[in-house]
Amino acid sequence: MKTKKEVTIYDIAQKLELSSATVSRGLQDHPAINKNTRKRIQETARELGYRHNNFASNLRKQKTNTIGVLVHELNSNFITSVLAGIEKITTEAGYDLIIAHSSESSVKEAANAVNLFHKRVDGLIASLAFDTADLSHFGLFEEKGIPVIFFDRVEEKGESTKVIIDNYKCGYQATQHLIEQGCKRIVLVTANLKRNVYAQRHKGYADALYDNNIPFHKKYVLIKDLSEQCGVEAAMEILKMNPLPDGAFITNDFSAAVCMQTLKDHGVRIPEDIAIVGFNNDAIGKIIEPQLSTIDYPGIDMGEIAARNLINHLKGLSNIKHTNTIVIRSNLIVRESSQRKK
After folding, report:
1. Each residue of 23-54: pLDDT tens digit?
2. HTH lacI-type domain: from which residue to which, for each copy (predicted)?
């Protein structure tokens, strides 16, 4: 099948017997062009099927009006809400998005970062994979003066701009709540402690135990991938413990819901036998029975704040290099799954 030739402004100019410069200005609705002439130009453009070549235009301006977003996964309510926040701000500002995900692989993350660099994104918003230790693949952006903002999973010791919550406070708060409900044998189900979010939640958990004179036992810390299977595995490990733990802080709501259901299937009562707190405030927490206590992690706010800071930097309204860390609000939501004391 023969490909139809792309219509250019020269084709429109030839049909209307106008100069290409006049057609170009008319397509941009320039006030210097007579209103009726503008209307004729735009009607003819639609009739001929003309498409504005944004790519060529942006290359001339040395910008693409495109923001790259690099995330560690896509099948997560939290990441979906962050992307919604980013998209809201970038759309309002006239920017397009290119989204890539690492599937929790630092190798794939590095390849995607290079790919986004070569696609000439004006800026990058990124969340790191579980195993990312070396951030050299983001050096390409720094060398070219392309701004990068990290969110959620970040390198805390780095000088880059990052948007996070206080994961330590959240870990402490969730554990303290379980202790106040009478729990003394509290399991922590979390992910790779090399990543800032899980390391800080673990530290909060451990410090809350220490401050309440409750011994820390390594056997109560279950390092998982926070998947559906993780919830089942965590429940089966908990069931084998003797005595049975009386509390659990699970740093992902979906995993917590699966763990709860598996425990219930084996005759464990929640919260009477085990009180449970999750993390993220996903919709599943309101569906599971009993409803899940959780840490509210406002993904939309995080996405909006990261995008707004990046756009303001690109427009010269602020400089992200002057803002090292932005901490957004988070809080404990208490529901039936952890309320042993009414």
Report:
1. 888 888 888 888 888 888 888 888 888 877 65
2. 7-61
